Amino acid sequence: MVTIPQRVVITEVVCRDGFQDEARMIATSEKLALIHRLIQAGVRSIEATAFVHPKVVPQMADADTLLAQAPREHGVRYSALLPNLKGAERALAAGLDEIHLVVSASDSHNRANLNRTTAQSLAQLATVAAFVQRAAPHVTIVGTVATAFGCPFTGRVPLERLGWVIGHMQAMGIEQVVLADTTGMANPLQVKQTLYALRERFPQLEWGLHLHNTRGLGLANAYAGLETGVTRFDAALGGLGGCPFAPGATGNIATEDLVHMLHEMGVETGIDLDALIAAARGLPALIGHDIDSFVVRSGKACDLHTFSETAIARV
Ligand code: ZN
Asked: Best exposed site among 36, 250, 302, 309 by fewest CB in 10 Å?
């Protein structure tokens, strides 16, 4: 008997992970209009931005104004990615519900991304976590481990190394950990084995997955995670979020494809898939290029076609 969770929470990351590497600058008003549509579609968890230096990620330069104007309706929870104390101060001033502290499991990726080793980042994040716990105890702190399943420079990340990073996060008082397959290197068996092993070692922690579909394994990996009991998934509308280390690669798993799979399996998301697909259809006009989404292209499995005797048989 296969049992999977009956309900999951999806965090929509299109405004952060999705837009951060887009060539066309997305205006704050355009982001707000999209966020409004997402909320109308039933999305209740939104990673809206990143509190990073505007020179490093120009698309996130409007983080403070975006959050000041973001609609606070239907109990929507806003989160943001941040790497340091300065980011945390800005995030708390912006009234975030949740902050995502990120570190790469591999030193090489962490150095490429944040210009310091994993150990140096962990020390810095401990300071940030302590600050947030003291200044805003109601704010949830989530630890995001980038390159959790593989590093584009050094390959497979040993479980021991992953455990070492997560042990540090737990010591900071973090109770929720998101494993990120930053460059789409994970496979379903690995996701399953990793989560089972980590759950055994850290039984108090709650787990989430942030998956990229770089090599077409995103949804298979999501299902593998679901089978281990994961109830929290990041996804980006339209599958946006290309990876700078895999040129031409697709981005995050598309939210509409993930929701479609979950609904087909009877898993509740609280999201109206048709409204989500309609929102995804608006993305090409915003970003100036096509999106990578199966259900936008092919419709839902439950959208039946009119039967015709003359249809050509295909297998
Ligand atoms: Zn990502």
From this structure: 309
